[in-house]
Specification:
The chain is built from 1 helix and 6 strands. Strand 3 and strand 4 form a beta hairpin. The protein is globular and about 30 Å long.
C-alpha cells in the first residue's frame, strides 16, 4: 500500500512518469491519478487521455507509477 511519508495520505496518488495532458497553473499534478483502498489495491484511476497500454501497466504495477502524493505533492512515497 502506498503512503505519503510527509502527510500520511494512503488514498490518492499521481504519477510523475505521466505528465498532465494540459500543463497549467492550478492543474492536476499528473496525467494519471489513482485512488487506493485500505489493502493497497487501486479502486479508481483517472487516465486523462493517456494511452491504454500505460494505464494497463500502471494498474498491474502501481508501485512503478504512483510516486506523487495527490494531497500534498510530496514524492516521499513508501510502499508496504
Amino acid at each position: 500500500m502506498p503512503k505519503c511519508a510527509r502527510c500520511g495520505n494512503t488514498f490518492s496518488f499521481g504519477s510523475s512518469v505521466v505528465p498532465p495532458a494540459a500543463p497549467a497553473a492550478n492543474g492536476p499534478v499528473s496525467g494519471l491519478v489513482a485512488n487506493f483502498d485500505e489493502q493497497g489495491y487501486i479502486t479508481e484511476m483517472d487516465s486523462m487521455a493517456n494511452d491504454l497500454d500505460i494505464v494497463q501497466e500502471a494498474w498491474e504495477t502501481p508501485q512503478e507509477y504512483f510516486d506523487t502524493c495527490y494531497e500534498c505533492g510530496s514524492n516521499e512515497i513508501i510502499w508496504d
